[in-house]
Amino acid sequence: MPDMKYILVTGGVISGVGKGVIASSFGTILKSCGIDVTSIKIDPYINIDAGTFSPYEHGEVYVLDDGGEVDLDLGNYERFLDITLHRDNNITTGKIYQQVIERERKGDYLGKTVQVIPHITDAIQEWVERVAQIPVTPEKTPPKVCIVELGGTIGDIESMSFVEAFRQFQFRVKRENFCVAHVSLVPMPKSTGEAKTKPTQSSVRELRGLGLSPDLILCRSEKPIDHTVKEKISNFCHVGPEQVMCVHDLGSVYHVPLLMESQGIVQYLNERLQLNVSMPRPGRFMQKWRNLAKRVDNLRKEVNIALVGKYTKLEDSYASVTKALQHASIAAGSKLNLTYIEAENLEKQTKINNPVSYHRAWQDLCKSNGVIIPGGFGYRGMEGKIEACQWCRETQKPMLGICLGLQAVVVEYARNVLGLKGANTTEVDPHCEDRLVIDMPEHHPGQLGGTMRLGKRKTLLEPSIITQLYKKDEIEERHRHRYEVNPDYIERLEAAGLRFVGKDETGKRMEVAIVDNHPYYVSVQFHPEYLSRPLSPSPPFLGLILASLGKLKSYMSKGCRLSPRNQSDVSSDEDDISVSSLSLAEEKSVIENGNGEKPVNGVK
Ligand code: GLN
Predict the structure, then answer these.
(1) Domain assignment of residue 569, yes or no
(2) In the chain, how many domains are there?
(3) In what order do the strands lie in the sheet with 510-515?
(4) Ligand 1 pocket: which of 482, 485, 529 to mutate (most atoms <8 Å of CB)?
(5) What pLDDT does 562 receive?
(6) Cβ within 8 Å of residue 310, ≥6 positions away
(7) Which of 25, 148, 166, 338 has the smallest count of CB within 10 Å of its CB?
(8) How many Å lie between the centroid of ligand 1 and the Cα of residue 429?
C-alpha cells in the first residue's frame, strides 16, 4: 500500500480567518487532480464531541451519517470534497483522554505512569493514522492524502499535546509524507493601508519553537499582498518565496481553491509530497469550480428569505442551513438575501415589552419571499415560530420547517385548525392538555450527550411535491431530535388537511408534513441541510427557493430539471437573468480584486 500523505493545517495570530475553507480547498484541488482525499479536524477542547454545545459556543452542531455530532468544519469538508466523514474524523482532547484513561483502567499500560508524552501523544498519532485510512467515498477507495486541521491558533495551551504529537509524527511517517501549511493573518491597518507581516513572523517563530516548520504560509489579508511583502515573509520566516501564498478576501468561498491553485499549490505539493500526479492542463482544470464561482458572481436577481430562529446573533449557528439555502439559490439562478428574525420578537409579549423589535420582526417576515424555520431546542422562541407557521400557512407564503420547525407546524395546526387550544410539545410544556409532540422514550435516558435519534435514517415517501423534488420515494437524511409527533393525533390532523407524506420504516414516526393548496408549505423532521452540496442542492431547499421565486410550478412541469450549464433557465413570470460567461481577464480581475461582497465564512 502506498504511504499516506498528510497535510497539517495550523493557524496563526487569530482564529476565525477561514482556516477551514483553506484546508478544504487543499482537498478540492487535490481531488481535482484525481487524488482521493480525507480529512481530520482536531478540536482541542475537553468535550467528547460537539453534541452538548449551545450553538453560541462554536456555531452549529454538524451531524454525520453515523450520528456523530461534530464541529461545523467537517461540514466544509463534506461539501467541498463531496465525501462522507465519520465521527472519528473529529478528534477532541476529551476523546483522546477518554481512550487513554479507559486503557489505563484496563491495565493496558502495565503499571507505567501514564503521561502526556508518550501516552497522549502516541494515542493522537495512532488515531490519526487509523482514521486516515478509512474510505470516505461511496466507492470505498482508500484515501491517499489526509488533511488534518488543527483548531485554534498555535501557542494555545490546550493544543500543545497535539502540536507535540505532530512534531513526533513528522519523523514517524517520514518527510516526503508530511507537510505543514500555516494559515496566518496579514493585517492592513487603515492608517497606512500597508500589509503588516510582524504577527505572521511571530506565529511562525512560535510554530518553529514547538518543532514544526511551515512548508507553506498562507496569508489571509483583506487585499492581495504584493511580492515585496511575500519576499519579506519569506526572508523572516525562513521559507522560499514560492512557499508564501496569499488568500485575500474574495467574492465567494468558491474562488478560494482557484486562487490557491493559481499560485502553484499543485506543483509545490507534487514535489514536496511526491504525489506523482500528472500536472493539470491549464484551462480546463477545476472547470466545475470555475463555472460555479463565475455563476455565483453573476447572480443578480434576489430571493429574500427570512430565517426565524433563536440563535440569530451568531450566523454560524445556522451554517449548514445558510449554505443549503445558498446552494439552492445558486441552482435557481438567484442571489440569496437572508434576513435573520429572532423568533421571540414575533411573540405577542414582545409587542408589549419591545414594540419596535416586534414590528421590525413582522415587517421583515412580511417583506420576505419565503420563510425557513430551522431546528432548535428549548422553549424560548417557540411561540414566535408557531406564529410564523400560522402566518405562512394563512397568507400562502412559501415555508420550509426543519425538525423543531415541523414540530411547530404540527402544534400550530392542532391549535388553529383542529381547535385544540392546549396543544403543545412536551419539550415546552410537559403537562400540556394536548401533547402533540412527545419525547421518544428510547432516546431520552436522562443523559444529554449523544442520546438523541441521530444520523442517517430511511424515510418512505408518498406521492407528493416532496417525491417530485427528491425524484424518488425512499430517501435517507440525517436526524438529530429527541421529540416526535404524537401518533395518536395523526388521523385527526390528516383529516383536517395536514398530510404526513413521509414516515419511517415502521410507519409510526412522522418525517414529512405538507399542506396542499399552498405554494409550498413543507416541513421535515430530518435535517436536509447536512447533505446539500454546492452542485447538488437539497431538494426541500430547492423547493423553497423556487416557490419563493414563483418558479416551482414551471420547474415541476418541466420534469424537475435544471440545466447544468445555466441553472437559471426555469421560466417565471418575470425575465430570468442568464449566467453570462466572463472572459478570462474579467475572471482574473474578480479573483484578484474580489467583488466587494460580504465575507463568507471568514473568507470574504
Ligand atoms: N428540540 C427538538 C427535538 O429534540 C427539535 C430538535 C431539532 O430541531 N434539531 O426533537
Answers:
(1) no
(2) 2
(3) 335-342, 302-309, 370-373, 399-402, 521-524, 510-515, 498-503, 453-461, 474-481
(4) 482
(5) 76
(6) 342, 343, 344, 376, 378, 380, 381
(7) 338
(8) 14
- Extract the C-alpha cell encoding 280: 493539470
Active site residues: 403, 527, 529
Question: In the Cβ-directed half-sphere of 332, how many Cα atoms lie within 13 Å?
Answer: 32
First vs last C-alpha separation in the chain: 40
pLDDT at 559: 84
Secondary structure class of 436 (helix, strand, coil): strand
Q: Are residues 259 and 345 in the same domain?
A: no
- Unique residue bearing C-alpha cell 385527526: 492
Q: Are 169 and 257 members of one domain? A: yes
Ligand 1 center to 553 CA (angstroms): 31
Model pLDDT, residue 191: 83
Supply the pLDDT for residue 447: 63
User: Does the residue 491 lie in any domain?
Assistant: yes
The answer as to whether 589 is a domain residue is: no
d(CA 534, CA 322): 12
Weakly modelled stretches of the chain, pLDDT under 70: 280, 282-283, 442-450, 563-604
Apex CA 220: angle with CA 23 and CA 285, to 5°? 50
Place of cell 501557542: 155
**Separation of CA 385 and ligand 1 centre (Å):** 13
Indicate the SS3 state at residue 500: strand
- Cβ atoms 548, 369 nearer than 8 A: yes
pLDDT confidence of residue 445: 57
State the distance from the centre of ligand 1 to the C-alpha of 427, rounded, in angstroms: 9
**C-beta 324 within 6 A of ligand 1:** no
- 337 and 267 in a single domain? The answer is no
Question: What is the 8-class DSSP label of residue 533?
Answer: B
Tell me, yes or no, whether 218 and 112 share the same domain.
yes
Q: What are phi and psi of 571, to 5 degrees?
A: -75, 150
Closest C-alpha among 514, 403, 386 to residue 453: 403
Domain of residue 172, CATH code: 3.40.50.300
Amino acid letter at 473? Answer: D
> Do 308 and 273 share a structural domain?
no
Give the three cell numbers for residue 74.
467537517
pLDDT tens readout for residues 431-459: 999 999 999 876 655 666 667 889 999 99
Residue 580, domain member (yes or no) = no
Atom of ligand 1 nearest to the CA of 484: 10
Max intra-chain CA distance, the chain:
77
At residue 596, the pLDDT reads 36
Name residues whose C-beta falls within 8 Å of residue 386's C-beta, 6 or more positions apart in sequence: 408, 411, 412, 415
User: Does ligand 1 come within 6 angstroms of the Cβ of 482?
Assistant: yes
Q: Using CA atoms, how far apart are residues 127 and 131, in angstroms rounded to an integer? A: 6
DSSP secondary structure, 30-95, as one string: HHHTT--EEEEEEE-SSSSSGGG--HHHHSPPEE-TT--EE-THHHHHHHHHT----GGGEEEHHH
Q: Which atom of ligand 1 is nearest to the CA of 480?
A: 9
Q: What is the structure's pLDDT at 446?
A: 61
Q: Are residues 375 and 421 in the same domain?
A: yes
Please indicate, yes or no, whether residues 248 and 326 belong to a single structural domain of this protein. Answer: no
Which atom of ligand 1 lies nearest, measured to the CA of 376?
A: 8
Domain that residue 396 falls in: 299-557
CATH number at residue 342: 3.40.50.880
304 and 276 housed in the same domain? no
